[in-house]
Amino acid sequence: MSEQRDRRSASAAKSTSKRTSGAKAARVDGPEEAARHACRSLARLIDHQTEGVSAVRRAEDGWLVNVDVLEVPRIPDTTSLLATYAVEIDTGGRLLEYERIRRYRRGARDE
């Protein structure tokens, strides 16, 4: 029984190793993929729900993505506080840096 458990652990370690090594070699091929990577990475770091992407542009060594995030949910929803974060990812989809560039109320007009 212990031998079966050891084999399963070794098998799981090999498949995890393959996935992580494959992730390092992956390339972000377009703006949609860049947006997905930026949203996932940012959400894990700041622990807020992403609402969407308001801009994606190619950078010299990757992508710059503006991600809109729900920071403070309120009732009614039009009074919730959102923020826009500038997120930079490399060509492999790894987050390089982020910065909150704007905070606003959902119902507020753009200036």
Give the integer mean of the pLDDT values.
Answer: 83
Poorly predicted segments:
1-23
> Termini distance?
67 Å
Could you give the order of the helices and strands? HHEEEE
State the helix count: 2
Task: Write down the Rg.
Answer: 19 Å
Helix content: 25-40%
Structural class: alpha+beta
Q: How many DSSP-defined strands?
A: 4
Amount of beta strand: 35-45%
Give the overall form.
elongated
| Main pleated-sheet profile | 4 strands, antiparallel
Spatial strand order of the main sheet? 1-2-3-4
Describe this structure in words.
- 36% of the residues lie in helices and 39% in strands.
- The protein has 111 residues and is of the alpha+beta class.
- A 4-stranded antiparallel beta sheet has the order 1-2-3-4, with helices on one face.
- A hairpin with a 2-residue loop joins strand 1 (49-59) and strand 2.
- It is elongated.
What is the strand and helix layout of this fold?
Elements: H1 2-25, H2 31-46, E1 49-59, E2 62-72, E3 81-90, E4 95-105
Antiparallel strand pairs: 1-2, 2-3, 3-4
